[in-house]
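Thread: quick sanity check before group meeting

JM: Hey all, I'm pulling together slides for Thursday and realized we never actually wrote out the predicted structure for the chain we discussed last week. Dropping the sequence here so it's in one place. If anyone has concerns about the input, flag it before I start.
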Amino acid sequence: MITPAQTLTLLAAIILIAGVATFVWIALATVARIAPRASLAMAAANAAASASLTLHVLRGVLPDAFTYWPGDVLAITSFALLGAAVPGITTRELVWKPGAVVVAVAALLLLAQPYEGDLRWQARVVNGAGAGLTLAAGMLAWRALGRSATGRRTPAPLALPLFLIAALMAARGLETFTNPGRTPDLRVPTDFNLVFLWTALVLALLQNATLAFLVLMRLINRIERLLERDPLTDTLNRRAFDQALEQSHAWLKRGRGYALVMIDMDRFKQLNDTLGHAAGDAALRQMVLELQPCVREVDRFGRLGGEEFCVLLPDTDIAGAALVAERMRMLVDEAPLRWLEQDWHLSASFGIAEAERDDASGDLVLARADAALYRAKNQGRNVVQA
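JM (edit): ok, ran it. Output follows.
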């Protein structure tokens, strides 16, 4: 036989989990600085859920004005904050306005309903709003996790706990039609309440653990990006570019060719000596920015050292590489560096080479592109040479 002590124990366990999760998310936001806005939103969501359930337990102990309406509004607010935090973790953009509208409308609807009788309409508003907000967050997370700008896919089923929470809230809302009068009170020792509370306990743990995993994945991705990116220009560093070249050369044996475009800024030492190293850094960043429109998603753009860069063009022959290099040359040539209220003309020389079947390694292709670049420098700079 189910006793009131069982339901109260489960409620206390959920409140404790939400309270602990609040402090964990605050630590992730303020100490670890991992997705701080989304982590703070998750902390607020857990705090609102904990406060809502605490007020629910205190019904009949504190005045009704402090427990019923505030507790229900806090419950909906917790779902709205969860819905805002999820896209903040998956897409780095907090989506809070729809949730705020839902909370405001639901709060007004609850205020218009007197907290008397079986409270079935209040339960329908709270559970309906919670189910809708969580379902929307789950759908957004599923789409965001299913695609990856880096080519690495995060398993979309990680959004499954959100759908389960939405189903749980919908089931509780539907139960108000079959068992009105008992559903709104979680303390009542019924079979439905016992199943609901156990499921809520498991999902609270699962949801927080899943989103914490996604936050840690973001940290890992950030570290990996720092390890493979040049800090000045955000292009691939030499190590990462060499790895990309090695992979492309392996594909060459399977019939997929590639070409290289070597780039070297002209008179870079003169620019540094005249305007200073800060101007030199600005010039390199500007050149990379000008070249970006010519770089496809499948291409690999890396800094080999100093003012020397290289672009790896998969599935491209020497003619295609020449067209890309010429467009790059024109873009750099047409955009002077503005520094200390004066313009400094920028230009670059380009050497291109195509991989051949008998090339033992990508280093041979790189050496041919470098030799072509050397010839371009000897021809007066600001030219493309193959």
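AS: nice. The chain has two domains: 4-227, 238-385. Confidence is low (pLDDT under 50) at residues 148-152.
JM: adding both to the slides.
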